[in-house]
Amino acid sequence: MTGLIRSMLLASACGALVIGCVSQESYDKLKKSNQQLSAQSKTLAMQRDEAMSSADKARAEATANHNRIKEIQGRLDEANKKLEEAGKKLQMAQQAQAGELEKSRGETGKSRQSAEQSNRSADEMQKANEQLKSKVQSLEQEAAKLKAELEAAQKQPASAKPAPTTAAAQTSQPMMP
Does the predicted TM-score (pTM) go above 0.70? Predict the structure, then answer.
């Protein structure tokens, strides 16, 4: 841009030399125009330098951001791999746990059946025990009656002994449980 301004001024100056004399007024206008273009050129050069500096900063920030993104992406990829591995381990653990649960359910079912069978056996034994207790009580009562008859018979003289009672006749037969 500065080169354009200079070439215009040069052309104006050459034109003035070719033509000859230039009026003071035209000269002052050209000089003023030259000063304005020169000031404008400096302003534009400063703005260009600032814009280039801003662009350089923006490029540096973009590069830094790009590098951070790459780093974060790498960490994310690594975290995803770990997550996938953990997911596989979790799935394997769940499958193993499901197998153990099924096995445990089977064993629990067997244990429950065994416990129910034991309870039935215990109930049967308890009933048999109660029946035996009842028989023992009736036999003890019968034995007490027989003992009382025996003592009464021993106290009476031998000629007055009564005939054996039905309870005594029953004791002479072997008892069966």
Answer: no
